[in-house]
Amino acid sequence: xxxxxxxxxxxxxxxxxxxxxxxxxxxxxxxxxxxxxxxxxxxxxxxxxxxxxxxxxxxxxxxxxxxxxxxxxxxxxxxxxxxxxxxxxxxxxxxxxxxxxxxxxxxxxxxxxxxxxxxxxxxxxxxxxxxxxxxxxxxxxxxxxxxxxxxxxxxxxxxxxxxxxxxxxxxxxxxxxxxxxxxxxxxxxxxxxxxxxxxxxxxxxxxxxxxxxxxxxxxxxxxxxxxxxxxxxxxxxxxxxxxxxxxxxxxxxxxxxxxxxxxxxxxxxxxxxxxxxxxxxxxxxxxxxxxxxxxxxxxxxxxxxxxxxxxxxxxxxxxxxxxxxxxxxxxxxxxxxxxxxxxxxxxxxxxxxxxxxxxxxxxxxxxxx
Length: 369
Prior knowledge:
By secondary structure, the protein is of the alpha/beta class.
């Protein structure tokens, strides 16, 4: 039987009263734990639990927000995002400290003028130890209604009338097995069954607890975790090597299936794209070290899988980093789809080939294009 693993069960929580944040978060975590336990009782594995709160308003201290949340949550066990901030926010020092202490955030770039500030933040904050840089992202579109379970671009939109759940799944190995045994029809059937059964289970949980929370939907993005490799799936299906142009049509075809299934679901949310998160995929890391996967070849995949560029280190200048963000912004605006960026930036004088982190192990270093 093909496994049913929830990669992330995320609760998007709109804060009602910032003065009572600790008590609100305590209740939210209780509901998140209950939902996780209920999914497990229905045969799902739950790999990670996550909480995203409304971005603290400009008159609310980010530092005190982080302190109050830590009174209610063990952020080593449940990932917590403070949402998306403006690159011109006056609380940048507090935001950086929150990231350093384990919280996730992202910066929105709603205008082209925001990109210079975004580049400055990423470039100046990329200092050893680098672990904190894995918890910060850039949203190149800045759609305030966009909801995804995937960190760091997860938000709880201010207009939410109630908390909502979203889910993503561990898919690469399962889809590879299905493709080799049942073809694309088997994949489509599995994605439908997995999505609908998870939504049904969440509904049953809320009815059983008289819970008035909602369901944003499932994000069917194909995301790796080390040997559960998206790269291996693409290479074996397409008889190609990641980094070669021959893989682009394969990526497009798989991505098209994900898109078609997600658009047919009653509740779908987020990216619903292939995610080539380099440091989270053992094969992608290997291809970088072999010299077969470069930043340019990774960039070539973005127009057909618009999730963005994720989880790598880059040796470059601030000016060239800005060029890269401008390129991603152009992709995002042309398709009117959210594109993300997450990377560690090293100075051009650096000669390191990899960065070591606790959570992701080694992170390969790309040279600029």
